[in-house]
Write a structure and sequence with these properties.
This protein is of the alpha/beta class. It is built from 10 helices and 14 strands. The protein has a single domain (7-391), classed as Zn peptidases (Aminopeptidase), CATH 3.40.630.10. The protein has helices at residues 7-11, 44-58, 100-112, 117-125, 136-141, 150-156, 218-234, 287-302, 325-331, 350-373, and strands at 62-69, 75-81, 86-92, 126-131, 169-170, 174-175, 178-179, 185-186, 239-245, 250-251, 260-263, 312-314, 335-341, 390-391.
Length: 396
């Protein structure tokens, strides 16, 4: 198969220009920094409008579907482009205050639906499925968690009566501008389970971060159902990319602020003693492919020479988070990539947000092009270990 080359030219991307603790659960993660408004990002109604416009202008190339509803009844969308045998699922805003991925996805959809020869070749090789705003209630509330009470869970799952509320449920505390005592909610990205057919049982609550979740939130149920439908249609989901935000960190050994952190591992390898509890999934798990996908993103960003796009690092390693979408899908056979964009949305001015959105687009570009032309399989997985780590301190 011939190489497709860098998709930067192919897609004509838009011109807008302490260590991470992924497992942490505390109101501190909800901190708002109101130096800037979030009005420059895409809100729910704008998402609906833009998806409709993209679908119409693509003349059938992009298919937009409602695949579920949030707890408060907002539609959750997926957009599909391409008909290839290789399947890539890309998700954003499972945390509603992590918004750059949504804008990047809309930009990618517009460009991937173009009539260029290169875009047509990509669509022939890959089926790309985007879920641009996984948690619309949280997005509208500019907060991490959804808007769902434990009592609502008990209505949907009466067998949980008497169980302790899930560990990822917050119903107290105020984080500057948000009062969880008045508006409780769940961290949806801890509500996944490697058993995609799991039914909640009282004995599994309250759980903890290194144990599976339960699919008790409608947002996680919707994501799970999309994943299963892709498995049914295509046999497997080759790659899953989850776009998040992190705090302010540095590339280890430098004073360079991290633009984007990457990670490939969210549960211990089931083929090792550390991952023995996941042994039933060992035939599906492919850590090397996850590492190759991450290397593809890293190489694409590094190709820009001396620029902020080269400030890429590895996020926390050695994680055991089966209740995340990344951990669950990895155990079900998908190569996985975490994008952690620097900062929170309220910390960004227009120029900064544009630069970070473009960094996400370019990282996605590296993965999509490498999967489409098959070059991802030629990458050395061990190169992943050479990516510099993330540091909480600058080194002069």
């Amino acid at each position: 198969m011939k190489k497709l080359g860098s998709m930067i030219g192919i897609l004509a991307l838009s011109a807008s220009l302490a260590l991470p603790v992924y497992a942490a659960e505390s109101p501190a993660q909800e901190t708002h920094h109101h130096e800037y408004s979030i009005s420059g990002f895409t809100n729910y109604s704008e998402l609906q409008h833009q998806l409709q416009q993209i679908e119409q202008s693509s003349k059938g190339i992009v298919e937009v579907e409602v695949v579920g509803q949030s707890n408060q009844g907002r539609d959750i969308y997926k957009a599909t482009v391409g008909t290839g045998d290789k399947v890539i699922l890309i998700q954003s805003e499972i945390h509603g205050n992590e918004k750059t991925g949504t804008v990047a996805i809309l930009n990618m959809l517009e460009n991937l639906s173009s009539n260029s020869k290169q875009a047509r070749e990509i669509r022939e090789e890959v089926t790309l499925v985007f879920m641009p705003m996984m948690n619309p209630d949280a997005s509208e509330g500019d907060k991490r968690r959804n808007s769902m009470t434990w009592n609502e869970v008990l209505v949907n799952f009466p067998q949980l009566e008497g169980a302790s509320p899930a560990w990822n449920y917050l119903d107290r505390g105020i984080s500057q501008s948000f009062d969880y005592g008045k508006n409780p909610g769940f961290d949806v990205n801890r509500d996944f389970n490697p058993d995609l057919n799991y039914v909640p049982e009282a004995k599994d609550f309250p759980g903890r971060s290194n144990e599976p979740g339960w699919f008790i939130t409608p947002e996680a149920q919707t994501a799970r159902d999309v994943y299963k439908s892709l498995q049914d249609e295509h046999g497997k989901v080759d790659a899953f990319i989850d776009i998040h935000h992190q705090g302010m960190y540095y590339v280890a050994g430098t004073a360079d602020e991290v633009t984007l952190s990457l990670s490939a591992q969210f549960v211990p390898d089931p083929n090792t003693p550390a991952g023995e509890k996941y042994a039933q999934y060992k035939d599906n798990y492919n850590y090397d492919f996850s590492r190759q996908l991450n290397v593809a993103a890293y190489n694409e960003l590094q190709s820009y020479g001396n620029s902020p796009f080269t400030n890429v690092s590895l996020y926390s390693q050695g994680l055991d988070l089966p209740g995340t979408a990344l951990g669950t899908y990895a155990l079900n056979g998908s190569g996985t990539v975490l994008f952690e964009v620097r900062g929170q949305t309220q910390m960004m001015g227009q120029k900064e947000s544009g630069r970070l959105i473009k960094a996400v687009e370019r990282g996605l570009t590296g993965i999509i092009s490498a999967v489409a032309d098959g070059s991802v399989e030629e990458l050395n997985p061990e190169d992943y270990e050479k990516i510099p780590r993330t540091s909480s301190r600058a080194t002069n």
